[in-house]
Write a structure and sequence with these properties.
mainly alpha
């Protein structure tokens, strides 16, 4: 099995009629007939090796700078530790508030001491556009499950970084299979929002986000075909993708919806008032735009270095092999998204603002905005691309990746905030 080759260029062009395998400089006389022709040759020699097949790619990893990966991992752990400390402080304060609030002999002044308990009658009020939110969260869970399995497969050596086609094919197949979880999560959340159009919910979940990605990919591919590029995907591949999408992903989404409909839905821990509570004016740093923009900074800081290496390998024909660091960084990234959303959501409730459903999704998902902005910076600083078509392809694929990050981080932040709020209000005794 051929696993690689090494090529070397001699100082002069070898004469193809040389004898005994010796390189003889080729004489070129531009004035003579046929003197402007330069003949190029090459030779191949086969050598046996005792290196096991699994270790034959190690020579291509020798230039990996492991020190930079360790520094990036250490900085990610420090960010995670900082956020974990903040979440622990919030948990301790919440437990203290619950202890005072649940006492039998308690005055009204003590009940109104902190703001988050005042919104117990509105905190589980259904958000605006519940169908869209449930579809985005379900699509995010689908992407999260797919990304986790791909990283695990690559970590255990089931996917080789040298075979990018196999990596992409595996990702596409896994994504369509994970449609089962997308249907379950989206349908269950839509029912939680008192939605009745479950068939529409399942149809939109199976078609909306995958359809958006397919349209973007189709536009990129048509641009490449217009330039007669060899990297353009043939029409038969598109037919296979559509068949896999409509024949596997859509039925599995409906199967997940059917399974979700058969599962009982627990009641809210606190009842919802009929009349919505008025939200008081708040300071600027508690407003939606600030918390959303600030929420994505720390998650992006966790994966900043790994994203730089991924961009470097994707667009400079290099092999990415640090899947161990990628796996640990991915875990830290997910936990960081959850913790920053809990932190922002807690202080939002303390300001008596109970519109946390959409904000919890956008707080962590803005990290995708920073991923796209840094990729733009990388394009102008590290890439040497002058062709408009190549730039369009670069930003097109970057937009697709940013959309995947958008729904993935949004779903993680949403469920982290949802479980946190559910837990603290389930512990409150409401008359």
């Amino acid at each position: 099995m051929i696993v690689g080759f090494h090529s070397g260029m001699p100082g002069t062009c070898p004469d193809p009629v040389s004898k005994n395998g010796e390189y003889v400089p080729q004489t070129v006389n531009p004035t003579a007939a046929g003197g402007d022709r330069i003949l190029w040759t090459y030779g191949v020699s086969w050598e046996r090796t005792d290196i096991p097949t699994a270790d034959r790619w190690d020579r291509y990893w020798q230039n990996t700078d492991w020190g930079v990966d360790w520094v990036g991992l250490l900085s990610s752990v420090m960010i995670l530790g900082f956020l974990s400390g903040l979440v622990i402080m919030i948990a301790l304060r919440t437990l203290s508030d619950l202890h005072r609030y649940n006492q039998k002999n308690i005055s009204e002044d003590d009940i109104d001491e902190t703001g988050w308990k005042l919104v117990h009658g509105d905190v589980f009020r259904s958000p605006s556009h519940p169908l869209l939110l449930s579809v985005l969260v379900g699509s995010g869970v689908q992407v999260l499950a797919t990304a986790t399995l791909i990283i695990l497969f690559a970590l255990f050596g089931l996917l080789s970084p040298a075979h990018r086609g196999a990596l992409i094919t595996t990702g596409i197949v896994l994504y369509n299979i994970m449609g089962l979880f997308a249907g379950m999560v989206s349908s269950r959340l839509y029912r939680r929002f008192k939605g009745l159009l479950w068939k529409r919910n399942a149809l939109v979940t199976s078609l909306a986000f995958p359809g958006l990605i397919f349209i973007l990919f189709f536009i990129i591919n048509m641009t490449l075909r217009g330039q007669h590029s060899s990297s353009a995907v043939p029409a038969t591949t598109f037919i296979k993708l559509i068949t896999l999408w409509l024949g596997l992903n859509v039925p599995l989404v409906f199967c997940g919806t059917y399974l979700s409909l058969r599962m009982p839905l627990p009641d809210d821990p606190v009842p919802t008032n009929q009349i919505p509570r008025q939200i008081p004016e708040t300071v600027w740093y508690r407003r939606s735009w600030f918390s959303i923009l600030a929420g994505g900074v720390l998650p992006f800081g966790v994966i900043f270095l790994q994203w730089f290496f991924i961009l470097l390998c994707l667009w400079n024909d290099r092999f990415y092999n640090t899947f161990g660091f990628l796996f640990v960084s991915f875990i830290i990234f997910v936990v960081t998204c959850a913790e920053i959303t809990i932190f922002m959501g807690y202080f939002q409730l303390c300001g008596e603002d109970y519109h946390w459903w959409w904000r919890s999704f956008f707080t962590a998902s803005t990290s995708s905005l920073y991923v796209f902005l840094y990729s733009t910076f990388f394009f102008f600083v590290r890439m040497d691309i002058s062709s408009p078509v190549s730039g369009f392809v670069y930003f097109g694929y970057t937009l697709i990746i940013a959309l995947f990050v958008f729904v993935l981080t949004g779903s993680v932040g949403f469920y982290a905030c949802y479980f946190f709020i559910w837990r603290i209000f389930a512990s409150v005794k409401v008359a």
